[in-house]
Amino acid sequence: MSSSPQASRHAHASGPLAIICGGGAFPLAVAQAARRAGREVVLFPVRGFAGAEVEAWPHVWIAIGRFGRLTSEMRRLGCRDVVFIGNVLRPRLRDIRLDWTTLMLLPRVVSIMRGGDDHLLSGLGRIFEDAGFRLLGAHEVAPEILMPAGQLGAVAATREELEDIEVGRQVLEITGPLDIGQGLVVMNRHVVAMEAAEGTDLMLARVAELRANGRIRRAPRCGVLVKLPKAGQDRRLDMPSLGVRTAEGAARAGLAGIAVEAGGVIVADLAEIVRKADEAGLFIHGLAPRGRAS
Amino acid sequence: MSSSPQASRHAHASGPLAIICGGGAFPLAVAQAARRAGREVVLFPVRGFAGAEVEAWPHVWIAIGRFGRLTSEMRRLGCRDVVFIGNVLRPRLRDIRLDWTTLMLLPRVVSIMRGGDDHLLSGLGRIFEDAGFRLLGAHEVAPEILMPAGQLGAVAATREELEDIEVGRQVLEITGPLDIGQGLVVMNRHVVAMEAAEGTDLMLARVAELRANGRIRRAPRCGVLVKLPKAGQDRRLDMPSLGVRTAEGAARAGLAGIAVEAGGVIVADLAEIVRKADEAGLFIHGLAPRGRAS
Question: Which sequence ranges are marked TM in the entry (chains A, B) (predicted)?
Fold first, then answer.
């Protein structure tokens, strides 16, 4: 079950892996992991979102709205497999210049953009597949970026904290199909913050603020950030993520720890996250998915 | 079905109405409505939460943790019916000095405070009833503070906005039993903000901020604030509320309007809310509860 033979088979069958790169630390983590697995890669950084560090790799800058150019470049370079990774906030329509291919797809794109995130992403996925590409999940080409199971740092969750994790998981299992968000903060079995469009970092900043202004009056080192993939979410397109900023935000919010689904959340720089968490006295827990042993 | 004969019967049967007053505009609105209905009232403002304007009324200042003093004062003044109204944030334990009665109740209070809001409030309700008082809802003594049904201001919700309201209502019906919060913001059928410990005003401020920093990129006048009472919530203890600040916050968040459950939300100064909403071009809609005609 080593990934290398499979990866090199891909290399022969499908040419280089196309990685469409949004912002954040994940695109390069995925590129490095795919290269380590023996796969040739070409990055397609999205202008306005991806950072300049992608230029150390084979790359072609792309713009939202230029789907025709993207697909012709991918074909020219012999790419058949494509991975989406990194943050791309919903673009403002007036910032977009459309090429002809995109223009033809426009009615479909508009109908997609009216819905929630899941709808948006799965719609874009189908468009790629209809154009003859194979959409893969970042975790399929770079399984080592997936969250491992169990206690990861020096700090273990207490019994009460495990109860808070369980409350958070139950709530997220119910709210998942509503396509609201992937994370929440539970303190003493009570949901004090629920993530939606603001994202995890801003939700944690809010908890820090609610503590500072006395609206949340709990002892420090109380509460758990819980993140799970939404039910029915296409994991090729929108895996929840855990990064160093998440650990820093959880520490500033005075939480006791972080619990995310093992295998269901991608992690950039796990060693640094664990170091920060240990330093702040936070636990980091990989939750076994339901139905398997924890 | 006029409320006056019933109110004066209460006046004879139960002495003055005790109104335990937290912060905000609601305590005096309820006191005025109860007095208009012919009921004698005594205010019990909670120190640190209620404003000085209560002192124009018959009143006895009280402190959290002094349940013995509160009940003996209520008995001395001949009160049997009691209403809780206004904001009382979760107190910090170190700010509380307990009297003996409260001390005896402490194990029960601690067990109550570990749960969510519903648990907290229904627990406190039972403690009052066990002490021989009758807990009434503010809406029972002052039905005119309840949200009316239908379009209230000059602006009507569009068909798309009615769809957003329906999405919000469906999500809140599912999340209600989870005891998270009573409000959310929906834009183009997508939940962009979900209220928890921060309350409605801060949630609306967040939406304004997400618009300002480009994280929400929608045209202005898009989106609806929806508020419903949580399912199973004890309406004597925690009715969701709508105030002038809510209308101002919705306008700053660039929303199209506000929809709250008719009969399920209390409103302070409806005329002023409608004036502000008209000025900002917001609709204000009272949603008929499910199963009745809208």
Answer: none
Tell whether A109 is covered by a domain.
Answer: yes
Q: Are residues B121 and B217 in the same domain?
A: no
**Shortest CB distance from B89 goes to which of A179, A188, A215?**
A215
pLDDT digits (tens, 9 = 90+) for B29-47: 899 999 998 999 999 998 8
pTM, two decimal places? 0.79
In the sheet that holds B183-187, the strands lie side by side as B150-151, B283-287, B257-261, B224-227, B183-187, B190-194
Residue written as token pair 């068909």: B159
- B290 interfaces chain A, CB cutoff of 8 Å: no
Which of A141, A173, A192 represents a domain boundary (last residue)? A141
CA distance A36 to chain B (A): 34
Name the A residues in 90-119 with CB < 8 Å from any B CB: 90-92, 114-117
Same domain for B191 and B132: no
Using CA atoms, how far apart are residues A266 and A287, in angstroms rounded to an integer?
13
The position carrying tokens 């183009």 is B188
Are residues B33 and B110 part of one domain? yes
CB A226 within 8 A of CB A203: no
pLDDT tens for B136-163 read 888 888 888 899 999 999 999 999 999 9
Q: Where are the beta strands (DSSP E) in A131-223?
A: 134-136, 150-151, 183-187, 190-194
Taking only Cα atoms into account, the Rg of chain B, rounded to an integer number of angstroms, comes to 20
Task: Encode pLDDT of A118-170 as tens digits.
Answer: 555 566 777 888 888 988 888 888 888 899 999 999 999 999 999 999 999 99
If asked whether residues B132 and B239 sit together in one domain, one would say no
On whether both A234 and A196 belong to a single domain, the answer is: yes
Q: Has residue A26 been placed in a domain?
A: yes
Calculate ∠ Cα A190-A191-A193, nearest 5°: 145
Domain boundary among A109, A141, A173: A141
Which of chain A's residues have a Cβ under 8 Å away from the Cβ of B184? Answer: 196
AA identity, residue A9: R
B62 and B44 fall within a common domain: yes
Q: Domain containing B251: what range?
A: 146-287
**Residues A180 and A196 occupy one common structural domain:** yes
